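re the bet — no i am not wrong, look at it urself. input seq straight from the record:
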Amino acid sequence: MVRVDKWLWSVRIFKTRSISTKFCKAGYVKKSDGRVLKASYELRGGETLIVRKNGINFSIKVLKLISKRVSYPLAIECYKDITPEKELQKFESWYINAKGTEYREKGQGRPTKKERREIETFKGSIPNPLDYDEYDDFIETTSILP
């Protein structure tokens, strides 16, 4: 048996173990029955996990349990991706639409810091709550409490 956060990191679903733990704490890792898994949950072979990443629910069936991070060719032998076609289409459309949304006139160069902040304010971008440092700064600056 292996901790779910450690397994997700070792099969390269997440880049770091701390990111894997943050996703578990935020409730983005569930069993197929819908139960939210804590990072310390002891994973067994044959279980199906649902991992919400970038707004897409990836379904993963656990084939092998490993606790050490391994290379990609070895990692893909430890799980089977059983994500429904509908979710994969969401991913493909997100990936295709994620490119080329911004346009700047030729010769304008990169936006200055001030212009970038104005763009972010205009677009209404809010920091990702999984990035705790940026999220805490955002909460501190926008808090209505004294």
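see?? The chain has two domains: 2-86, 113-142. told u. also The chain is about 40% helix and 15% strand. so pay up
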